[in-house]
Specification:
8 helices; alpha/beta; two-stranded antiparallel ribbon; single chain; Rossmann fold
Length: about 290
């Protein structure tokens, strides 16, 4: 009896050690209540993936781990944080560190503002890691409600139904030339009113965005890299309440599982989020 119990414990320990490790890096507090809730969003995604077979999710808060050894053995690392010149993944020697992870076939993903980095070395790395990035002065960030009506035959899109959420969906992303190996996941056609602004910042409009009237825009995409790793970018995630939408949430949960090279269920990753869940772990920004 004791031997059997020991065997079960050992088998459980071995199975747990073989779980894929996903690291979600949540940025520092940002914006007003209910917006850019990076910590609460990461913890909610972690909760939704709790118990998913073969996956262990860890959340790092405040923009960057105190000890980068947390990345050791990770199957994937995802950043949900403020971007631009202050992006936590490009400070000092971190760009080289993350590039080293990519060279080891570690999956890389970025949510919302986390897809924005300056053009140049950082932008080139993001194109290599995830296929594209938000480029200031070229991309734009209107607050709008894309109508996502059809989806590709891809694991990240499994189980999705047509949906629309009002969010700061970035568009006119600076993709690799000819979008080489980039798989669009969420695609919609902005109205001319959306193209004409105002954008969240700068207000715009940009002439090249207006002149692209009628063109489809890609708000989420993924890539499979030559190094064997995977990458994705998701431009929504400004409004925390949108994680309460089943499809908005599912497409990201699917992407996280896919990024770790685990099988996405035929109907996508199922989860339930309540109003109470959405109120948990919010940053102390005051009341809205």
């Amino acid at each position: 009896m004791i031997r059997a119990l020991v065997a079960v414990v050992l088998m459980s320990a071995v199975a747990e050690s073989q779980d894929k490790k996903l690291i979600l890096v949540a940025g520092k507090p940002s914006h007003g209540p209910g917006d850019h809730e990076f910590r609460a969003g990461c913890l909610l995604l972690q909760k939704c993936l709790q118990g998913f077979p073969g996956l262990k999710v860890e959340v790092v808060t405040n923009g960057w781990p105190d000890d980068v050894k947390v990345f050791d053995g990770a199957a994937a690392v995802v950043g949900y944080a403020d971007g631009g010149g202050g992006h936590p993944f490009i400070q000092g020697d971190r760009l080289a560190l993350v590039d080293g992870l990519a060279k080891k076939a570690v999956g890389l993903g970025f949510l919302h503002y986390g897809v924005e980095v300056p053009k140049g070395p950082a932008g080139e790395k993001f194109q290599a890691w995830i296929g594209g990035h938000y480029e200031h002065g070229y991309s734009c960030n209107p607050m709008w409600s894309p109508e996502y009506k059809t989806f590709p035959d891809h694991p990240v899109a499994r189980g999705l139904k047509p949906f629309s959420t009002t969010d700061e969906w970035y568009m006119c992303i600076r993709f690799r030339p000819q979008m080489k190996d980039v798989q669009p996941i969420l695609v919609a056609v902005p109205s001319d009113k959306v193209r004409g602004g105002p954008y969240v910042w700068p207000q715009g409009p940009y002439e090249h965005v207006k002149q692209a009237s009628g063109r489809e825009e890609v708000m989420m995409w993924c890539v499979e890299r030559p190094d064997g790793g995977r990458g994705f970018g998701f431009t929504g995630g400004h409004r925390h309440k949108n994680w309460g939408d089943d499809n908005h949430r599912k497409v990201v949960l699917n992407a996280l599982v896919w990024l770790c090279k685990l099988d996405v269920p035929a109907e996508g990753v199922s989860s339930t989020v309540t109003e109470e869940d959405l109120k948990q772990n919010l940053d102390p920004k005051g009341k809205k």
